[in-house]
Amino acid sequence: MLALTPLPNIPLIRPDDNLADVLLNSLREAKISLQDGDILVLAQKIVSKAENRLVNLATITPSPTALELSAKTGKDPRLAELLLRESREILRTRIGTAIVEHRLGFICANAGIDHSNVAGEGDASQEWVLLLPENPDKSAAEIRAALETASGKRLGVLIIDSHGRAWRLGTVGIAIGLSGLPGLMDERGWQDLFGYTLQITVVGVADELAAAASLMMGQAAEGTPAVHVRGFPYPLREGNLSELLRPKDQDMFR
After folding, report:
1. HSE (CB half, 13 Å, CA atoms) of 108?
2. 66 with 84: CB under 8 angstroms?
3. Which of 3, 4, 73, 83 has the largest CB neighbor count within 10 A?
4. Where does a domain end: 84, 111, 130?
5. Predicted confidence band at 240 (pLDDT cuts at 50, 70, 90)?
6. Residue 42: strand pairing partners
7. What is the band of 166 on the pLDDT scale with cuts at 50, 70, 90?
8. Which value, in Å, is the radius of gyration of the alpha carbons in the chain?
9. Percent of the chain at pLDDT above 70?
10. Which range of residues forms the domain containing residue 207?
């Protein structure tokens, strides 16, 4: 049975905090002993904060290209500059939004740069923004290694963010970094209930788990940025973000 448990009393994370220690303390409070096959799902925000991906907009000087992007989107020119730095390509723009190919390879709004629940020391909170982790797969692997060392168990770690989709309204949790679990499960060759052999079914199991955990975390003031998962219905293996990214030549929405 798949069971997801929000971890309690995660403190506000600050730069250089040890997330593995924070998670282990919370697991003890929740009276959860890690077992082989368990997965920890983490909100991107706590990983970015621990890695000091905070940027004070007061330190940013916009380029001429950023000024042009600002005019198209109505965004602060300094934020537009960060959008350009964090993106491979600007795909679409309208007032309030820029759809980009992030430097990590996925398509998202506003390069994943976040204003909500972000504050820095000594300045107005609205001057601070938070970037995505530099390398979420590496972040997941490092946290997993520390948790496995402490517990002696075989684990998975999934880092998630909230993204929109081209064909539906509303944001959902998706995987942006993973270690120790599959991103995709290729079910081609499996048989359905009636003996039909599946021909094209490849399931984004990391994204499915991300969406489930995101329901537990919430999007505003819930303060539950970590979820313990037990009973994941697929065998753990090494995985990474790249297996989830659709190649550009197969992307019909660009």
Report:
1. 28
2. yes
3. 83
4. 130
5. very high
6. 159, 226
7. confident
8. 19
9. 88
10. 3-53+134-240
